Amino acid sequence: MNSLTKEGICPMYSPKIIEHFQNPRKAGKIPDADGIATIAEGCGDIFRFYVKIRNNRLEKVGYEVKGCPVAIACCSMTATLAEGKSLADAMMITNEVVEKALGGLPPEKKHCSNLAADALYEAIQDYLYKRALAGNTAPAASGDDWRYMYLPRDVPDSKGNRR
Amino acid sequence: MIYLDHAATTPLHPEVAAVMYDVMQKCYGNPSTTYTIGREARELLENARKQVADLICAQPEEIIFTSGGTESDFLALWGVVCSHKEQGSKKGRGSHIITSSIEHHAVLNNSANLAKYLDCTVTYLPVDGDGLIDPADVKQAIRSDTTLISIMHANNEIGTIEPIEEIASIAREEGVPFHIDAVQTVGHIPVDVNKLGVDLLSLSGHKFYGPKGVGALYVRQGTPFTSLLQGGGQERGYRSGTENLPGIVGLGKAAVIAQRDMEKEQQRLEKLRDALIKGIEEQIPGARLNGHRTKRLPHNVNFAFPNIEGESLLLGLDLQGIAVSSGSACSTGSEEPSHVLRALGGLPDQYLNGAIRMTLGRSNTEEDITTVIEALATLVKKLNQLFSS
After folding, report:
1. Neighbours of B34 (CB within 10 A)
2. What share of chain B is helix, strand, coil (3-state, %, to 5)?
């Protein structure tokens, strides 16, 4: 489908983007979610992620999305990659990981439509924050590292990025 | 495939393709030469000029062939402003131009360039919720140094047809040349430059089943206008460059066909358009028609849906073999919603990115309309489920 196009010349959707847009995985809200976060982009896109956590694992990931096909595909891919993973592993899923998993994104979509992983990260943060508020900040199990605890927003994340 | 983007471009009419092929194969002569094949080419050129003139009730000598709508708009705006060169004239450099906030970018950006390079001041008139310009606003905006008024005949996105006759009579009273961008109307609804009372008019071949890369600018005799493209002096000096004869002959043929079939086709499309509008309004809750309900191009349907992005509708329909256009400029690489939708005061924010335009044409049938309504209703429902609040 995009054999005639090169990145930067004619933006196109990869077959994976189209597939995930047509059949979004794990879409929908989780009513009894442990963590929720919303990222609203200036151009009107909205990403809202829900996480259900058991034994420091993402038992269930859900989302609501308002946006273009790329935004929808990014949510679907992020949820697919994250569900079942440990909190630590799930927090390593970045927007770049999602982009790669989808086989690349049209260049002009990178900044505005690829925010699903950020929303997932924030949803996990929401859970950790709530847990910290409940006075349960200690590592929950052996092998837990700093990522398990609530991270204040001004602390760089695991990639060194400030949010 | 169901093609519903005839405002973007139309397929070449087979009769047009046939005459173009003929010219390409047999008539390579340069119309500026005087031996036999040159004279033959000249005859074809002038014949096409007459055909195009007839379509808009103009005189052949008032037609300048161009490369399309964009060039016609460019020549009109710059040609009128640059025609005033006397020192101390209130027109020309540093003068005033009136246009609207919903124009095609060919007019908007050329106006902006006239402001940038020739210190012109530009007034962008507002529109009402249906996209209509108030002629009283035009009257009020005119100043002693107003050089040109440029308003589109019908809007390419929302299909609203502007009150050109009323604006023209104001322009005439005040002695200001009046240009219309009629790219969306010529060949689809009757356009008579004398009845409308306009001084300049842009048209484009590929919008009415003619070839791409060819259009025309009508300039009424006596209108202040100067040539910008200098060279061999073709088109009476107003647009140099060896003529695109196959394209021009194709444009002429398209004009003849449009004139021949217009009445019937216009009625047929209006019926299909109204059926499409009715079906969407009945079956899709929250759907909002953009543009005027009756003062509307016979083939234009534009709807916005809350909390859905037009680009997702576009791709969703495309995957089912239906080609439409998205009102959101996001798909073209810019993040801004359409300047036209934004100019329609009162369109709630959640609708701004969710517009799609469906423009009908010769190939569309009643069956297509039923298919499209059903596909769209299903798709909107599916996308709505992705976002509930």
Report:
1. 8
2. 45, 15, 40
* Confidence grade of residue A136 (pLDDT, cut at 50, 70, 90): low
In a domain? residue A1? no
E-assigned strands of B139-268? 146-152, 178-181, 200-204, 215-219
The closest CB to that of B311, out of A27, A64, A69, belongs to A69
How many beta carbons lie within 10 A of that of residue B335, not counting itself?
Answer: 16
User: What span, in angstroms and rounded, lies between the C-alpha atoms of A148 and A92?
Assistant: 12
**Burial of B297 by CB count in 10 Å (0-12 exposed, 13-18 middle, 19+ buried)?**
buried
Helix or strand (DSSP H, E) at A64? strand A57-66
Decide if A46 touches B, using CB distance below 8 A: yes
Quote the number of domains for chain A. Answer: 1
CA pair distance B331, B329, nearest whole angstrom = 5
Largest CA distance in chain A: 57
**Considering the domain boundaries, does residue A41 fall inside one?**
yes
Pairing of strands B288-289, B200-204: unpaired
A66: chain B residues, CB-CB within 8 Å = 307-309, 386-387
- Give chain B positions within 8 Å (CB) of A27: 385-386
pLDDT, tens digit (0-9, with 9 covering 90-100), for B359-376: 999 999 999 999 999 999
Q: What is the CATH number of the domain that holds A55?
A: 3.90.1010.10
- Any CB–CB contact under 8 A between B385 and chain A? yes
Strands B300-304 and B288-289 come out as: antiparallel
Q: Do the first three CATH levels of B14-257 and B262-380 match, i.e. the same topology?
A: no
The CATH fold assigned to B14-257 is: Aspartate Aminotransferase; domain 2 (3.40.640)
Active site annotation includes B330: yes
Predicted TM-score (pTM) of this structure: 0.89
Q: CA B110, CA B75: separation in Å to the nearest integer?
A: 10
- Is the residue at A156 inside a domain? no
DSSP for B40-109, please give it.
Answer: HHHHHHHHHHHHHHHHTT--GGGEEEESSHHHHHHHHHHHHHHT--STT-SSSTT-EEEEETT--HHHHH
Which of A43, A76, A78, A115 is the best mutation test for B, with the most CBs of B within 10 A? A43
With beta carbons under 8 A apart, name residues in chain B contacting A44: 309, 337, 349, 352-353
Domain range annotation of chain B: 14-257, 262-380
Architecture category of domain B262-380 in CATH: Alpha-Beta Complex (3.90)
Q: Hey, are the CB atoms on A72 and B386 less than 8 Å from each other?
A: yes
Q: Please choose, from the candidates B289, B283, B287, B304, the residue with its C-alpha nearest in 3D space to the C-alpha of residue B356.
A: B304
ipTM: 0.84
Residue of A nearest to B389 (CA): A64
Q: Where are the beta strands (DSSP E) in B126-280?
A: 146-152, 178-181, 200-204, 215-219
Structural domain harbouring A125? 15-137+144-148
Q: Which pLDDT tens digit goes with each residue over A2-53?
A: 334 444 434 578 999 999 999 999 999 999 999 999 998 777 789 999 999 9
CB contact under 8 A, B330 and A72: no
Residues of B in contact with A21 (CB under 8 A): 312, 315-316
